[in-house]
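User: Design a sequence. Structure:
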């Protein structure tokens, strides 16, 4: 079931679904220098589906945002080992 988050004129912004992964990978290959395995996209969608967003115009994928959380040492010295989040692509 598609979860539409927002519509701005003819652009629909919604949560990604498994069927979106191939169009997302095609956008990545055409526009960015870094490329990821199929498993990487699948795992991000499975881990935090709320943080994987696609944009469409007339049913055509025109963009995406995918985010990741991981554990690591804080950039702030006193906090130690923390959960960190960032935009992957």
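Assistant: Done.
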């Amino acid at each position: 079931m598609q979860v539409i988050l927002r519509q701005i004129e003819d652009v629909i912004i919604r949560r990604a679904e498994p069927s979106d992964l191939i169009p997302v990978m095609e956008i990545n290959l055409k526009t960015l220098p870094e490329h990821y395995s199929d498993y990487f996209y699948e795992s991000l969608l499975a881990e935090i589906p709320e943080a994987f967003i696609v944009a469409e115009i007339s049913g055509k994928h025109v963009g995406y945002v995918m985010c990741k959380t991981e554990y690591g040492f804080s950039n702030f010295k006193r906090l130690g080992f923390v959960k960190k989040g960032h935009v992957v692509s």
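Helices lie at 21-31, 38-47. The chain has a mean pLDDT of 90.
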